[in-house]
C-alpha cells in the first residue's frame, strides 16, 4: 500500500545556525500508530511543524497522500490534524464554538452532529458552553484533540499528547487514540513516556540532534536490541568464575557473591542462557539461593541508543 507520508532528506537550520533536522528520512504507513521518541530538543516538534506547514525547511521533500507538500500544500494539509503541545488560542472562546470553527478553516461545511460526536467522545459535551480558560489542564488538552479531529483528518499528529496529565487521563487518551486508529486514522505521536510508545505504537522511531537513529517495528526493535539481565546470588562466595562459564557474558561481583549475566537478544535466548548457567552451577557444586531476571524494556533500549549515539557524536 502507498505510504501516507514520505519524508526525504529533510533539513532545518534555525536562524541562529542550529541544525534541528539533519537529512531526515521517514516513511509512515497508512493506518499505523508511529511513536517518535527523542530527548528534549531532539527535533520532534520541528519535524511535525515541517509536515504541518508551520516550519519552513531548508531542504528535502515531504510527500503526503502522494502529493508533494511543497507544491500542493493546501489540499493535503486539510487531511492532516495537529494536536500541539500547548493551547495558543483565545481563552475566552467557548469550547463548542472553538472546536466547530476549525472545520471552516479547512473549507468544510459545518456539521453540528459530527462536532457533538467528537465532543461527547472526549467527555467535553457538558463543557461545550464553558470558556476554555475555565477548564483544567487535562480538559484543555482534550479540547485540542477535539479541534484537531473536527475536520476529520486522515493523518493525525499528537505532540506529547499526555505530557503533564494524570495517569487516569493518560489511559483515557490511549483508549481514544486506539479508537481513532480503529476508524482508520494514521497517528504519529511524540512522547517522553516510553511506556506510551510501548503500549500504543506499531512502529517506533528514535530521533536525536535532528537525526533519525533508528526506525523499526516495536516488537522487532525489542527483539533485536533487547537484553536479558540476570543476577544470581551465591550461597558462598567464589574466588573466580569456573572456566566452563567462559562462553557466557557473565561477570562476578567483587565480593564473589553474585554472578551478573547481561546478554540475549530479546528473543528468549537470554532466559535459555540463564537456565543453562544455573544448571552448570549445580554441576560445578556452586549453590545459589536467588535469581533476579530482567528483560529490557523499550525504555532501556531507548536510553542505550541515545547514550551510544551521544558517544559517537560528542
Ligand atoms: N524557533 C526556533 N528558533 C531557534 N531554535 C529553535 C526554534 N525552535 C526550536 N529550536 C531548537 O531546535 C531544536 C529542536 O527543537 P524541537 O522543539 O524540535 O525539539 P523537541 O524534540 O520537540 O523537544 P521537546 O521534547 O523538548 O519538545 C532545539 O535545540 C530547539 O532549541
UniProtKB/TrEMBL annotation:
Gene3D superfamilies: P-loop containing nucleotide triphosphate hydrolases (3.40.50.300). Keywords: ATP-binding, Nucleotide-binding, Transport. Pfam families: ABC_tran. One of its GO terms (molecular function) is ATP hydrolysis activity. Residues 5-234 form the ABC transporter domain. It comes from the Bacteria. PANTHER family: ABC TRANSPORTER ATP-BINDING PROTEIN. This is ABC transporter ATP-binding protein.
